[in-house]
UniProtKB/TrEMBL annotation:
Catalyzes the conversion of (8S)-3',8-cyclo-7,8-dihydroguanosine 5'-triphosphate to cyclic pyranopterin monophosphate (cPMP). Keywords: Lyase, Molybdenum cofactor biosynthesis. GO terms for molecular function: cyclic pyranopterin monophosphate synthase activity. Transmembrane segments: none annotated. This is Cyclic pyranopterin monophosphate synthase. It comes from Cellulomonas humilata. It catalyses: (8S)-3',8-cyclo-7,8-dihydroguanosine 5'-triphosphate = cyclic pyranopterin phosphate + diphosphate. Pfam families: MoaC (PF01967). Substrate binds at residues 76-78, 112-113. It comes from the Bacteria. Its EC number is 4.6.1.17. InterPro entries: MoaC, MoaC_bact/euk, MoaC_sf, MoCo_biosynth_MoaA/MoaC, Mopterin_CF_biosynth-C_dom. One of its GO terms (biological process) is Mo-molybdopterin cofactor biosynthetic process.
């Protein structure tokens, strides 16, 4: 039964999948998430009145940095060349919407990097606004799409 799990060896122990023989290909992944905030926090975000500073700029940089450091956080993730990261944040009536796209030309995909970028960007938003409202929360972090690699393209259905 353990043969079906790529991150387990024959004895059932966790292992890093060996991708040495795989050829590098262009790959991309997009993830999304949101930080839910109350009306007073949304107003402060829109007015640029958050005491800690530019929330979206800090969150964007945090997300980019996190994508590049994913293997340090996830022990079975491969160290790969992260060649492009875009983290977009938008203030909505409910809080902050986050979308991250990560690209590479490597032997394995960047789904975890995209999810990590969104997660850490969301944590940065929470850190920046928690002094205004401790009830903010992170929600709906999920993979939206991936392209490239052996499994091909995938997109979340609406």
């Amino acid at each position: 039964m353990t043969e079906q799990f790529t991150h387990l060896d024959a004895a059932g122990h966790a292992r890093m999948v060996d991708v040495t023989a795989k050829q590098p290909t262009v790959r991309a992944a997009t993830a999304s998430g949101r930080v839910q905030c109350g009306p007073s926090v949304v107003a402060a975000l829109r007015d640029g009145a958050v005491p800690k500073g530019d929330v979206l700029a800090v969150a964007r940089i945090a997300g980019i940095a996190a994508a590049k450091r994913t293997p340090e956080l996830l022990p079975l993730a491969h160290v790969i060349g992260v060649h492009g990261v875009v983290v977009d944040l938008e203030i909505t009536d409910e809080g902050v919407s986050i979308i991250a796209t990560v690209r590479t030309a490597d032997r394995t995909g960047v789904e975890m990097e995209a999810l990590t970028a969104v997660s850490v960007a969301a944590l940065a938003v929470v850190d920046m606004v928690k002094g205004l409202d401790k009830s903010v929360r992170i929600a709906d972090v999920q993979l939206e799409a991936k392209s490239g690699g052996r499994s091909g393209d995938w997109r979340r259905e609406a």
